[in-house]
Design goal:
Blueprint (H helix, E strand, L loop, with lengths): L7 H7 L4 E2 L10 E2 L8 H8 L1 H22 L10 E2 L7 E2 L13 E5 L6 E2 L1 H10 L5 H10 L5 E2 L3 H10 L3 E9 L3 H10 L11 E4 L9 H10 L1 E7 L16 H9 L1 H4 L6 E3 L13 H4 L21
Parallel strand pairs: 5-8, 5-10, 8-9, 10-11
Antiparallel strand pairs: 1-2, 3-4, 6-7
Helix pairs in contact: 2-3, 3-6
Length: about 300
Amino acid sequence: MNRFVLLAASTVALGGCASVQTPTRASAPVVTMDEHRPAPDTMRWLYGSGEAAGASIQTWRQIADYSITIAQQSSVAQSVPLGLPDAEGGIGTRSCTARDGTGKPLAVVFDVDETVLLNTGYEYWQALSGRPFDPAEWDQWADNGAGIARPVPGAVTGLKRLREAGITVIFNTNRNSETAAATIAALEAAGVGPAAHLETLFLRGDDDMGGRKDGRRARIAESYCIIAMAGDNLGDFADVFNADEGDIAARRAMVARGQYAQLWGNGWFLMPNPVYGAWQEGSIGEVFPPDVRWKPEPGDAPAIMDGQ
């Protein structure tokens, strides 16, 4: 997940809803907020709906079923395709044999936010306040959210099944490395731990690639045979998918055709997240190309649409 993409949908839905009164202190304005105001549709779906819970449980069951089936094979020669900084085209595989000729231990690599943990506390604050994404507030949440952040439905059971099958669970997240201890505490409190920084938990700042995860994936693949990956953003699988977030048609076509299309549900598992992410690009004209458009006949459509 990429928390450094503005939450455009939330901002549009909530803009102007909070009225700022005269502050009691210069650094702490008092904000009037209404908890009865409807939350943005995307937040209602992900954090409140039974449909989202069902979709998440379904995906987690698929992750565990697939990975355990792979682990039961006599040997695994290559990792699942994954984003790597030195791979041609940005995606490649790594040998599952270590330098000493032994097999590397099997692992599944997960993003954290909205993949393993639901950031209900932070999203509540955004919905209530109408504020756009603020990196400083996000870091505060990452440092203090243990016990409030809930596991994604299905995650506790799914991770338990993987660990019982002898598969190592590794987290690769764009939370900042300064929040490592607090992130570990949040995972533990939600029942999806354990995790150890630089062993089974890798964060933004652990290398010099910023929010790009390919370098961390390569580091993990040096020690483990990665048999599956799961996340809520295409960058959780390979950085190349987010190289040009503005070209939404090309980005969609890249993942929906050819060799990459074969990987969804077959080593790559995408968790639903309609609240934020790199997908938040595209005008009406870009999302709906000419060959898929429809309008009522002239006279039936609103006058503003006639002749357009």
